[in-house]
Amino acid sequence: MLSQVMQDAINEQINNELLASYTYLSMAVWCEHEQFVGCSHWMRLQSEEERVHAMRLADFLLARNGRVVLQAIGQPEADFESVVQIFEKALAQEQVVTKQIDGLYELAFNEKAFAALVELEWFITEQVEEEKTAREIVHKFHMVKDDSAALLDLDRELSGRVAESGSEAN
Ligand code: FEO
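That is the input. Now the predicted structure with MU-OXO-diiron docked in place:
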């Protein structure tokens, strides 16, 4: 049985992942409104992935006979300046999530919650990948700058993202 402090922390991370999902959805609809359909597609898939992350934590909590207590999700930002800024914010968000996961891992270590440590290792690996992917896309946007043709190419490239197994296709 997980301690109450561990259960509370996992519930908090479920909320963090759902807020990340909501934020990516907000970014997706902004992109689509601005006719960047490839960026929107990428963000929709990312939003779905974050929901899967939340469910993964919820399922873990349930499997350990814990209580999942869903909390209100904060309002995501809705106004953005550009697709470049959106991906910069996505990278910053992933860096925040990495810190949250690290904190959760440290807590699980201190609480001697060994099953939680194993579960959280998946998230640590996932964060390495998510930060790397976001950083690479930001770098490409910085190289493209205001070159319209190159921007369209990059948007087309991002439209090619496929859903990971376990998350729904879009
Ligand atoms: Fe679930 Fe992108 O962190």
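The chain has one domain: 4-72+79-158.
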